[in-house]
Amino acid sequence: MAMPTTPSVPAPRTPRRLRGRTNTELYAWMFMRVSGVLLVVLIFGHLFVNLMVGDGINALDFAFVAGKWASPFWQIWDLMMLWLAMIHGTNGLRTIINDYAERDQLRFWLKVGLYTATTVTIVLGTLVIFTFDPCPPDAAAELLPSFCPAP
Amino acid sequence: MATATVEQAPAAADAVPSFQVTMRLRRFNPEQDTEARWEDHTLTMYGTDRVLDALHKIKWEIDGSLTFRRSCAHGICGSDAMRINGRNRLACKTLLKDLPLDKPVTVEPIKGLAVLKDFVVDMEPFFEAYRSIMPFLVTSGNDPSRERRQSPEDRARYDDTTKCIMCAACTSSCPVYWTDGQYFGPQAIVGAHRFIFDSRDEGAEQRLEILNDRDGVWRCRTTFNCTDACPRGIEVTKAIQEVKRALLFRRG
């Protein structure tokens, strides 16, 4: 059977380039705005509770932190702060690298370093928040939060 | 008494004050120089003179090799955008008397585009970005037998961005454009805005898709350099934000 011989004419108004028809940059831009607003609330809430409520900064010690992380509310709060701040800052640094690193090689390696540092910090921070032991067995009792069982 | 009248006559004709001005020009001749160099000329200019007049005086009376673009010399053609005292302006719309004259007036080519000679830069990447956003009316169906009607309100929607004269002052003032050769630049986005918000045009979706690119509107850092630089007073940054908003809220 003979091939149909209808010529195919490309659309004359094909845009110059259509690589990557994704909304990645749109979502990144949106994320910066939304996370920025959330971070203002999270960070000022964090500062207020840690530095101003009750005894203020004088109350800050191991027991204070351990007490906070015994509550799921503060675990989630700190987890959100960690993730949002890290991703927000990483995305900001990514655009700065895009803006100012001119050579492709340099760009690539700077981003590899950036993403590695981000991943390590996020994973470590998340691990600490969820595996934190508020009552380490061989610690002096007066440093521990009040709910720890007496040794 | 006779001498007094003789002395008064030229004073009256010379009512426009004159002053000394040092023009510090960033010269580059590709046939001789390996790098751009500064060159000073001290001239006597008048209160009605613009930077362009000083450049003309140098070119016509001192050094004919000075090279720059200008056509209409009245702020319409957009040929003579240059960096004057570190800011992008049209040489034909900048009065010398408005600049601090105790210091030399520096004139440089606009940044971010390759310098060909003196103040002449290669505008091709700039025009290429403009072409890529399809700066023409896109419609479907048969052409109407008369003009395409539009209400004054619809016309007003994109009035600001129709003022563009394509002088490249905005694009070459953009720090992202300086370092990222792929970024469309403010002017191309202004050009797209003019059609995206035109009620007669049907190509908005395609243009938005082009500007949604990695090197499109999201590269904008909202530094307002472009708005400050525009000799036509176009609110360039606002136009870019409107395109961003259109991208965020399109197809419900």
Structure report:
The complex is a heterodimer of chains A (151) and B (252). Chain A contains four helices and no strands. With 151 residues, chain A is an all-alpha fold. Chain A has a single domain (28-134), classed as Fumarate reductase/succinate dehydrogenase, transmembrane subunit (3 helical TM bundles of succinate and fumarate reductases), CATH 1.20.1300. The longest helix of chain A is centred in the middle third of the chain and has 29 residues, at 72-100. The radius of gyration of chain A is 25 Å and the shape is elongated. With 252 residues, chain B is α+β, with helices and mostly antiparallel strands. Chain B folds into two domains: 3-121, Ubiquitin-like (UB roll) (Roll); 124-249, Alpha-helical ferredoxin (Fumarate Reductase Iron-sulfur Protein, Chain B, domain 2), CATH 1.10.1060.10. Chain B has helices at residues 2-13, 51-62, 124-132, 152-157, 175-179, 186-196, 204-211, 225-229, 236-249, and strands at 18-27, 37-46, 81-84, 87-90, 105-108, 115-117, 120-121. In chain B, the strands form two sheets. In chain B, strands 2-1-5-3-4 form a five-stranded mixed β-sheet, covered by helices on one side. In chain B, strands 6-7 form a two-stranded antiparallel ribbon. In chain B, helix 3 (124-132) packs parallel to helix 6 and helix 6 (186-196) crosses helix 9 (236-249). The mean pLDDT of chain B is 91. The chains are: A mainly alpha (151), B alpha+beta (252). Chain A binds chain B through residues 13, 15-21, 23-26, 28-30, 95, 98-100, 102, and chain B through 131-132, 134, 138, 175-176, 179-180, 203, 206, 209-210, 212-214, 216, 218-219, 221, 244, 247-248.
